[in-house]
Structure formats: structure tokens, C-alpha cells
Amino acid sequence: MGLDRAATKPHEQLAQHLANDLESVNALIRQRMASRHAPRIPEVTAHLVEAGGKRLRPMLTLASADLCGYGGAFHVHLAATVEFIHTATLLHDDVVDESQQRRGRPTANLLWDNKSSVLVGDYLFARAFQLMVEPGNLRVLDILSNAAAVIAEGEVLQLSAARDLKTDENVYLQVVRGKTAALFSAATEVGGVIAQAPEEQVKALFDYGDALGIAFQIVDDLLDYQGDSSATGKNVGDDFRERKLTLPVIKAIAAADEDERAFWKRTIEKGDQRDSDLEHALDLLNRHGALEATRQDALGWSAKAKAAMQALPEHPVRQMLIELADYVVARVS
Amino acid sequence: MGLDRAATKPHEQLAQHLANDLESVNALIRQRMASRHAPRIPEVTAHLVEAGGKRLRPMLTLASADLCGYGGAFHVHLAATVEFIHTATLLHDDVVDESQQRRGRPTANLLWDNKSSVLVGDYLFARAFQLMVEPGNLRVLDILSNAAAVIAEGEVLQLSAARDLKTDENVYLQVVRGKTAALFSAATEVGGVIAQAPEEQVKALFDYGDALGIAFQIVDDLLDYQGDSSATGKNVGDDFRERKLTLPVIKAIAAADEDERAFWKRTIEKGDQRDSDLEHALDLLNRHGALEATRQDALGWSAKAKAAMQALPEHPVRQMLIELADYVVARVS
């Protein structure tokens, strides 16, 4: 990391470098979330879109297009598309998970109701598809509609896999690709496609987004067991209490003896949890080196993301994306 | 109606005429609702898709393409797209309305849960967009993604308008276009577009679908107050009990004196309903001729649909579509 950048986080550097484009994206989002007939739509959307998210996904599209020398205006449409798909997914996720908080504020399903979250999410999906049609690029449409299908499939898979002790690392990876990496990789890939970058660069952008998204999600799952709750905004053990089979637990179960298996079966599969169970779970995770192995996996995916960048041309944005891949795992390095 | 057809309903004539295409649509639907990773998806989808719906919407696409002399294969993709959008909408509607029955069977939200209905609905939306991209026709994408937005917007509008006594016939029409007519008109329009029909025929197909959808929904709302429950599968007064402001009630409220307004305010807006209220409501609807005026509106939209067909060429399918416009209002004629 260059000395002059040490004070700034890489996503902030990107935001600064892409400030004009990001402003266009925000303007387009505000314009397209309007509804002449149903004021409920912009109310619900604004609550989420303007809650101070980092706009990480749309920035990946803008950055990828910029890195490949794109000179047109349609990367803005695609970035807004990506943010709309993300926002729609969050609205539906919060209904499915019965969440009460998101980005430090009450969720839309709590402030309004589940109906509004479901239907406004549908509206944003439809608006996303309208936006992605506008550049008139069929390959972009193919990539983004595929991503939307993978996202939904991952979410459904998670419904059945979440509390099933048979869930292995392969299934976990499919779920993670669905819930996080598919939109990251689509975001970077369409940036390259719209810029008509050479095929190997497009492929590298896909690989970068895929690996970055997976690293991002693994870190999230790891911090749930060893994070500083004041920094993560989550309590240690939330996933355990919600009986989610994340990577650390999957690794611990793979190494479990009979007694330990019975413990995981009771606490995760049956949901019969007692006061000291979280402590015992953490003990098992440490005993089998599951947290350390998970950490190594996250670092491995981050390294893959950085390696993919080698196929892209020298460019200030390339350096920022490399630093971003370091940054997403910095909290566990 | 020709004598030889008197025994057959027009949608059955269409199904017979389009049998090969419909079989291709069904095969494509089965293929695309599969999910390698999440078996819950085809389970939930099959429950609804194979429950014996009439496939009215996909038939409209096939019929329109046929009527305009289309010789390709992509009308099958577009018809399957239309059915997927319809199915996704039904899944989400049943969650929003907390419905327990659909097509005479328990709803998916009841058999599985709301989560599955929301996420499988999202999956089908995404699959619909994948399918519609395949013909590579940008105008088709524009029409169908617009329709998806109008549908979602209409549903959100209905949330706020349903129990609001200020809802007038214009708002009602917007809601009806969203919940029903937008997909009908998109279904017919894309059939013409994919067949590269002349602009005036495409416009006429849109107008036909729009008017047919509106007539269809008005009849549905009318039958709720005067239908034969053994034929409609609904009880008389369901909409009243659910406090829905449909066209008959909107007309009665527009003609209401002060006492009557207070009655509607109490029963619909506040939801304070007593035993004899439905009877009184029916009395008011008849006193102001609201049911008869609603019936006339439905017949008017049916006539508009038939008139639009004049711009299309002589063809057996044209006659069937004309008879279909008669058929949707036959139960109130």
C-alpha cells in the first residue's frame, strides 16, 4: 500500500476516483426509483438506498469499465442496475430472515410491512431489468439475468441447507456464490463487456469479482465467531444462535467425534440451545483449528482476486482493486 | 359464434389450434424451472404451474405470433416468459394477501412457507428475464421489462388505494392495468413484435390485450357481488369482507349521500363490519345502479378488444380471439 494512501481505505479511494460517475449513478437511481402512482415505492427505496451503504457493487462496475478504458455513458446504467438488484435482494432477505435492523436502522419490513418490502423489491427488480436493457448489449443482459437467477437459487438453497448437518463446503460455496459473489462477479464482468475489453480481461474481471465476493462473505461468517461487536455491529455468536451452518462450523463438524456431532445436531439442527453452548461451540471451533482454517480460506480467495488483476492493464484503478482485495480480509489478517 | 363451435369455449379452441406450440411451452417451462442445486424450486413451481391453470397468457402470445404469420421458434420462449412472470406474481401475491387457496388447492405459502414463496418467485422472475433475452430482440425486452414494472407498481398502488375512500375510477384502472392488463397486453404485443408485424397491427394487439385484461378483471370484481359461488369458487362478498375498493363500490361511493358515505367509511376504511352490512352494501350497489354500470363498463372493454381485432388479418385465430373477448364477459352478459 503506497504511503500517501495509508490514511484512506481503498473503497474510499475508488469513490474519490469515480466521484463524477458515482454522482451520475446516484442521480439515475433517484430518477428511476420514483413512481408517479405509488409514493410508497420511493419512500421504502430511499430508506434503504440512502442509508449510507458504501455502493461497493456499483463502484465495481464503474471501476472495471474505467480500468478497461470505456469512454461511453452506459456503465452508469449498469452500475445503477447492480445497486437496484442488490437493494431488491436486501428487501426480500429482510422479510425472509425476519430482520429488524439493517445498516444501523430499522428494516423496511419493520417500518412498513412485509407486503411493502416484497412488492417494492419486485418493482426494483423490474426497474433493474429496464435499466440493463437500455445499453442494448445482449451479452450484458445475459450476464445480469444469469446473476439474478444464481442469487435467487442460492437463497433458496440456503433455506434448506442452513440447518442441515450434511451441508459441506461445496454447498456452502454455492450458497456464498449466490448470496454474495454472483453479483460481485457480474458487476465487474459487465464493466469489462461494456468497454469491449479483450476476452481474457473480461474473464479476469469475473474471477476478481467472484473471489472478492467469496472472501468478503467468509470474513463476515468468521467475524461472527471472533469479531469485535463494536466494530462489526453484530454480536458474537449471532449465526450460532440463528443456527446457521457457516464455514467455521462446517469445518468443525467435518472433524467432530461422536459426542461433538451430537452437540452440533442438538444446537444447530434441533435448535435446542442452552446458556453455555456458545462457549462450548467456540471451544470446539478452536480445538479443531476451524477458525484458523477459515481465515486461511479467506486469505486464499483474496490472493486469487489479486492474482486475477495481473491480466488487467497498469492503471491507478487496478491498484485500488488490489488493495480492496487486501482490505476485505484486513479485519482477519 | 359459429354453430360448430358452440360446444367449445374459445380458450379451448385456441388450446386445440395451438396444441403443438403449447406443448413446447410446457416442455420449456419444465426445463427452466429445474434447479440443480435447490430442489425446493421445482417443487414449489410445479405445485402452481401444474395445478391446471388455463395458460391463457402464454396462449395470447402464441396466438398473436401465429395470427401475424410468425414462422420462427422464439414465440415459445416469450410465452414461457409470460407464464413465469405470471407464476412469480401469483406466488408473491399469495404472500402479500395471506391467501390460503389458489386454483382449488392450498397455496405454496401455506404448504411450504412465505420464505419459499418469496424466493422461488424471485427465481422465476430471474428465469423469465433469462428466457426473454434469448430471442435477442431488444424491443421485446423493453416491452416485457416495462410490463414487470407496471405490474409491481400496480400491486404497491393497491396496497395504499385498497381501503382509501378517495380511490376513484382512474386509480382503479391503474391498479387493474397493473395487476392484470399489463401482462395481457405485453403478451399479445410481443407476439406481434417477434413476428415483425406492421406497426398498426402491433398497436392493435396491445390494445386487444389491454382491453381484454381490463374486461377480465372488472368481471371478476363484479362477480364477487353477484356471482354464483358454485361457479366462481368465491363467496359473494369476499371483497367486501376483505375491504377491497373495487369498481362497483367506487361507483356507489361516488353517488353516496352523507349516511351512505358514513356506512362505507365504517365498513371499508375502518373495517368495522356487522352481520347485516353485506346485505346493506348490496342494497346500495343496486340502488345506485352500480352493478349495472360496472357490467356496462366490462361490456365496453370487451367491445374495445373486439374492435382492435379489425386491424388484424382474416385468420381462424382472429375469430377465436374475438370470441374470447365475448367469453370473458359472458358470465355477466
From TrEMBL, chains A, B:
It comes from Roseovarius pacificus. Supplies octaprenyl diphosphate, the precursor for the side chain of the isoprenoid quinones ubiquinone and menaquinone. GO terms for biological process: isoprenoid biosynthetic process. Pfam families: polyprenyl_synt. This is Octaprenyl diphosphate synthase. It is an enzyme of class 2 (transferase). CDD domains: Trans_IPPS_HT (cd00685). Belongs to the FPP/GGPP synthase family. Its cofactor is Mg(2+). It catalyses: 5 isopentenyl diphosphate + (2E,6E)-farnesyl diphosphate = all-trans-octaprenyl diphosphate + 5 diphosphate.
